[in-house]
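Thread: "does anyone have the structure for this chain?"

Original post by V.I.:
We have the sequence but no experimental structure in hand. Need at least a predicted one for the grant figures.
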Amino acid sequence: MARITNEIENSINIIRGGTEIKGDIRCKGDIRIDGKLIGNLISDGKVVVGEQGVIEGTIKCANATISGGVKVNITVNELLSLKSTAN
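Reply from O.Q.:
Generated one for you, tokens below.
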């Protein structure tokens, strides 16, 4: 059972470019957004917003690297990295 739990917690979720989601996302692992999310994102892991990624809503996570566009209230427990392309 512990092995399945570790696989879930170590998983990486990807929202690819050209994908638009309206709603909330909750995940245990890391997530990368290269598409568009309109809603709230809660992650126990790391959130990465790629250069073409867009999030409008709220982000709560352990770590975040932002390279794209965000219109959010963000709460990061550990490390927030804003790249030069962040908007």
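V.I.: this helps a lot. Residues 21 and 41 are 11 Å apart (CA to CA).
O.Q.: and Residues 2-9 form the longest helix (8 residues).
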